[in-house]
């Protein structure tokens, strides 16, 4: 899994440039009690939904997948039983525990409103929230913040760069973990001395260092180790709690393009995803009850395995919805089956649900956005094709 590379050097640079990690631009506080929280995890590279929410009861699944098929629940290394003939990949034990508590649901066959098999282009559509490629220059999560008033919700990007999904008119903050740079403490002290009299830079530097201290591990001397995804989840949770905590967070996980050796790669990637969500839950404490986590990807993978024990770019995939705010329930949307005459172009899982419908349902019922704003501003032109889903949170 690609590490998120930002360390104290970047924090100091951002702070000294007046871009501290305090949540910029917020002037209005939440007035209706504690704010609900939303985390959007983007699995970049096209996550194989047929291995995540395994349709083991579909008679076509094993013949199509061959050696890549995940065994049925109860068999060796089998899927973890869900409902209606589905199982969860065995690496997702933490998410399966949440399912048992009524805190996880899944959509087995979602897709974008357009059929694209280019990672770059599909991620653009996933994040811009429009009906096509580069129809919007900003991201739907940022537009959601604007629609909510612009200052009442605090956005946070996890990573060295703010992804499109959070870019736009609403100010958002960013943070990324990394190792302690050489002489970082001495440099921090020198910068504090240098900017102590500067009303803007000094304040931003202090806030940036305070944020790093907040998310540092074991009292501040250890930093997140490379690929410590559970630690990352706990660190993000710290940035979401308390009166200054973020309300809307975007996280990217790379490495899901499994053209070869898919079984081993997915074991690693899904273990990391499971650890991320588990870390979030453990770190959020009681705030978890007001949290929803969406895991989405740009497109799925081919129904048939290829000749290198992998899969190629497809269409339909899975979406996961977890959190203490999630309502207990079964699969979200219909299952098209994997019969030959139901595959899209005789190769892909055919989507039955526009992914925007899930996004809109969560934003409406969990984050308080009204339907008119969702249809016209956050997801323009989506009213007819992607109505908000009911009963998710």
Q: What is the CATH fold-level name?
A: Alkaline Phosphatase, subunit A
Helix content: 25-40%
- How far apart are the termini? 30 Å
CATH architecture heading: 3-Layer(aba) Sandwich
Under CATH at level 1, the class stands as Alpha Beta
**Rg calc:** 21 Å
In total, how many beta strands? 11
Give a verbal description of the structure.
This protein has 393 residues and is α/β, with parallel strands linked by helices. The protein has a single domain (37-184, 230-378), classed as 3-Layer(aba) Sandwich (Alkaline Phosphatase, subunit A), CATH 3.40.720. The chain has twelve helices and eleven strands. The chain has helices at residues 8-16, 49-52, 61-65, 93-100, 119-128, 140-147, 184-195, 201-215, 229-240, 262-284, 355-365, 371-378, and strands at residues 37-43, 53-54, 80-81, 87-88, 104-111, 155-158, 172-175, 248-253, 291-297, 317-322, 353-354. The strands form two sheets. It has an eight-stranded mixed sheet, sandwiched between helices. Helix 6 (140-147) packs across helix 12 and helix 7 runs antiparallel to helix 8. The longest helix has 23 residues, at 262-284. It is globular, with a radius of gyration of 21 Å. The model is unreliable at 1-31, 179-184 and 217-222 (pLDDT under 50).
Give a quick set of tags describing it.
alpha/beta, 3-stranded antiparallel β-sheet, 11 strands, 8-stranded mixed β-sheet, disordered N terminus, single chain, Alkaline Phosphatase, subunit A
Short overview:
By secondary structure, this protein is α/β, with parallel strands linked by helices.
């Amino acid at each position: 899994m690609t590490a998120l590379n930002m360390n104290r050097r970047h924090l100091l640079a951002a702070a000294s440039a007046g871009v501290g990690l305090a949540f910029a631009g917020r002037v209005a506080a939440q007035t209706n009690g504690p704010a609900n929280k939303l985390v959007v995890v983007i699995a970049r590279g096209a996550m194989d939904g047929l291995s995540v929410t395994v349709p083991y009861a579909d008679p076509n699944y094993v013949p199509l997948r061959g050696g890549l098929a995940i065994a049925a629940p109860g068999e060796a290394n089998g899927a973890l039983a869900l409902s209606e003939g589905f199982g969860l990949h065995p690496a997702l034990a933490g998410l399966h525990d949440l399912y048992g508590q009524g805190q996880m649901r899944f959509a087995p066959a979602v897709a974008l409103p357009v059929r694209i098999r280019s990672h770059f282009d599909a991620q653009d559509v996933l994040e811009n929230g429009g009906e096509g490629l580069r129809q919007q220059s900003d991201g739907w999560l940022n537009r959601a913040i604007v629609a909510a008033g612009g200052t009442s919700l605090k956005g946070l990007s996890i990573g060295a760069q703010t992804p499109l999904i959070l870019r736009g008119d609403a100010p958002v903050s960013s943070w990324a973990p990394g190792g302690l740079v050489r002489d970082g403490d001495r440099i921090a002290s020198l910068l504090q001395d240098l900017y102590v009299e500067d009303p803007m830079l000094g304040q931003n530097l202090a806030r940036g260092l305070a944020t790093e201290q907040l998310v540092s591990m074991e009292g501040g001397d250890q930093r997140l180790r490379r690929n410590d995804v559970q630690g990352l989840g706990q660190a993000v949770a710290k940035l979401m709690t308390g009166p200054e905590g973020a309300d809307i967070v975007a996280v990217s996980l790379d490495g899901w393009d499994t053209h070869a050796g898919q079984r081993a790669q997915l074991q690693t990637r899904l273990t990391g995803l499971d650890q991320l969500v588990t870390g979030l839950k453990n770190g959020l404490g009681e705030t978890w009850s007001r949290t929803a986590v969406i895991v989405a990807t740009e497109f799925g993978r081919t129904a048939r395995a290829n000749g290198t024990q992998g899969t190629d770019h497809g269409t339909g995939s899975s979406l996961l919805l977890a959190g203490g705010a999630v309502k207990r329930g079964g699969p979200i949307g219909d299952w098209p089956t994997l019969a030959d005459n139901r595959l899209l172009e005789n190769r892909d899982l055919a989507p039955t649900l526009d992914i925007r419908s899930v996004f809109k349902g969560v934003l409406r019922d969990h984050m308080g956005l009204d339907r008119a704003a969702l249809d016209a501003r956050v997801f323009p032109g989506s009213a007819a094709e992607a109505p908000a889903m009911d009963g998710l949170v």
